[in-house]
Structures are given as structure tokens and as C-alpha cells.
TrEMBL record:
Protein name, per record: 6-phospho-beta-glucosidase
GO molecular function: 6-phospho-beta-glucosidase activity
Enzyme Commission code(s) on record: 3.2.1.86
PROSITE patterns: GLYCOSYL_HYDROL_F1_2
The keyword Secreted is annotated on this UniProt entry: no
Amino acid sequence: MFQMKTKFPEDFLWGGATAANQLEGASDVGGKGLSLADVYTFDEKMPKEQWSDQWHLMTHKQIEEAQDPASKKYYPKRHGIDFYHHYKEDIALFAEMGFKAYRMSIAWTRIFPNGDELVPNEEGLSFYDRVFDELNKYGIEPVVSLSHYEMPLHLSTKYGGWVNRKLIDFFVRFASTVFDRYKNKVKYWMTFNEINCVTHHPYVSLGVIEENHPNIEQAKFQGAHHQFVASALATKACKESNPKAMVGCMVSYQLLVPYSCDPDDVQATVDKQRTSLFFTDVQARGYYPAYTAKMLAEKNVVLETEPEDEQIMRDYPVDYVSFSYYMSSAVSAHPERIEGAVGNLLTGGVKNPYLPTSDWGWQVDPKGLRTALNQLYDLYQKPLFVAENGYGALDVLEEGDKIEDDYRISYLKEHIKQVKEAIADGVDVFGYTSWGCIDMISAGTNQMSKRYGYIYVDQDDMGRGTKRRIKKKSFYWYKNVIATNGEQL
Ligand code: BG6
């Protein structure tokens, strides 16, 4: 009756993940509109601390400047790595590694350039037809996010972003359009990438400009509520279009552990872990968890809802739970008492003395991935998908086109081992797409030089370079991992 699983399932979806706004480029080609991501600048002279500040705060002044054709600034995400023109070559390289799946996103702005049009842009739709056909040619399953940090800028400047309920209709129109168009080409969908990040960066997740909101918490949770409803309505539309399709949620999951066994640290960890679990609770179960009332009251948030919202969320929870996992963090109720405690920007946690950190201060904790998989499966009993996991580093291109990225191999190997452990624990995990299978623009810092790929792209932070694709050492390593279905790591 009980059979322990010691191997990855035969049909396990090995692959890599990217996002349209970070790799496609060609932002002025094929009728594409300007997206939120197209407004972020990069300048080598900019102090390092400011790189990711932009991610957290966007001002009207920056947005106006970005729309001015006379602006001399460099906007990296408008250029990406020019996947738009290199997609055949890039997909051929993914196929050479043996990818079974490729997680990507559709740029909303290619389909509805401003977001509020009634008729979609055919040129945008046909671009993704070509991409899906190319993947299909190699038997690679597309796993597609509808919204990955790039909604139309117009929806932010004209409507105020997701805080405005009208966004639900615009999103559902976009979602229904692509579900219908690609129903024979795409089976796996995700609605909002890292939906819980609305609380970290409301501009790029919600199109909400903080200057407009005296109570930004109100805007964040109102926007999140609208995304929950939109996600449920999109799931409904997807099922109507193709009953066999699977729709997942996607959260940024940082495992949080108590800094000590002090009961205050333990409770603080439970509270803080809800920065991710609140979102999976709503989307996987279909209703707000019991702690919502207290949590919103403490933030002075009063949600405006419509009577039908509750039912649609209950009727259309997601089919699977996907998440990104890069690191864990420790939580202390009294960080001021810990000497040298460094706050983690994303989680607000403190440094765990047992763990090493990457060059960007991310705490490397492979075993945490097994814990995360177990936690999520215990909670929801729904299939899980590791949508992102990877190691951002400054790679060096050496003589003879060599990139010896052993640090990346080691990071990925240790994490994949833990996925296997979780499978033995009984967790139903059906795929693993490492982040940034090809180098592209970093979401948080806007740099090119924070690289995650198996494939190096010859381009620097200011977009200079040949864009030549070069296989790293990790390319051959991952190819063998896939060929042996995770038996040789
Ligand atoms: C995830 C995002 O948060 O992390 C990706 O979904 C992002 O878009 C990835 O690129 C890595 O973050 P960064 O800032 O190093 O690019």
C-alpha cells in the first residue's frame, strides 16, 4: 500500500524560466505598448544602493521622463537580450539541453498595448504563435505566466493600477484572448508572478504609484484583492476554453525560520510567513484565511469588495501551487538585540548565522527548499511546481569562450537534491524550472551582469556587446541532469 518514491517521476518537467520583460527586448516592434518595466533605468554611474531602490519606489517624474522621446537615459528592459529576434536560436539551445518545459510570460503590452483596447494586436498574438510552435517542434511544454511584472504603463497612469476595479475586466479580456488563441498550444498557465510581492513593490506588481496614496497599505491590499478576483475569473475563462488546462498561482516563497527558540521569535515567524502564505491560502483554498480581519485591521485597511467576489474565488481556486525559491531568512522579534543583524530587504528577516550568502546578500539554504515543499504540500495537498530557483552571479568569460560557473552548478545541484528528498517525503512536485536559463536583465537591479543562465549572453549593463550566445559549464551539467532524470547531479 505504501510505496516510497526514490526517483523523479518519468514525466517530470525539467526546464528553465524567463520573463518577457527581461529578455524579449524589441519594445518598439510589432505594435507593443510601453510597460511598467520599460520605465526602469540603469546607469553605471548610479550608486549601487539606488539600483534596486527604483524597484521599490517609482515617481511621476521618472515615469514622465521615461515617456519623453528626448530622454537620453538607458532603459535595459526595453532591449532585454533581444529574444524577440533570437527566439529560434535560444529555443534550439534549450532543446539541446533537453528541456521538457519552458516557463515564459506573455507581454500583456504586445497583445493589448495600452491594456484598455477592445481588439487585440494581431502582430503580438502571432509572435507567441511562432514561439509556441518552435517549442512544440522540440516537444518542450510551455508554462506561461500571464502577468510577470510588465502590465501596460497606461493602466497605471490613467487608471491608477490595480487599486482600480476596472483592471479586473481588462485583465480578464487579455487572459481570455490568449486562452482562446493558444488553447491547443499551452496547457499550463500561471496568473500573477510572485503575487505576494504586491507588498514589496506595489509599482511593478500593481501599477500603484506610492505618491498617490497616503495609506499605501490600503492600496496594496485593495490591489491584491482585485488580482485575486481577476485570477479566479481568468481560471474560469481558461476552463471554459480548455477544460484540460491547468492554472496555477505563483508566490515568492522565502522560508522563514525563528532566529531562536524564544517564543516571541517563534510567533513572529508565524506572523511573517504569512507574507507569502496569505496569498497561497486565498488562491489555493479559494477564501481569505481566518487571520485576515486582524491583519487588515492592524494595517488600517478596509477592503472594498463586491458581493459576487467571494463566490467566484471559492468556485475557481488554482489547480496547482507554484513558487520561486532562492533563499531563507531568520526572524527575530527583537532584531535590535542581535549584534550585526542585517535585515533582508524582501522578508525583513535577519541573517541566519548558519548560512552562506551570495554576492547580493541572498542566504543560500538548499534544505529550506525541501522544507518549503513539505510545508506547502501539507497545507494545500495540491501539485507543486518549482517555478524559479537559481544563483545570480558575476560570471567571467575566459579565453576560448569558457565560463566556469561551478558555484552555480553547486547551488543548483544542492537544491535539486532537496527536491528529490521532498519527492521521497511524499510531496507531489511535477516540475522544476530554474530561473534565468539564459542570461537576461535582472528584475530587481536592472543589471545585465547579475547572471543566472546556463547560456551566457555577450552584453554588458549598458547594452553593449555582440549578444552572442555562449554555453557555460553549467549548460553541459544541466543537460546531463535532465538526460538522467535527476539521477546524476
Ligand atoms: C524573481 C522574479 O523574483 O526573482 C524574476 O520573478 C527575477 O523576475 C528573479 O529576475 C531574480 O531576481 P533578480 O532581481 O536577481 O533578477
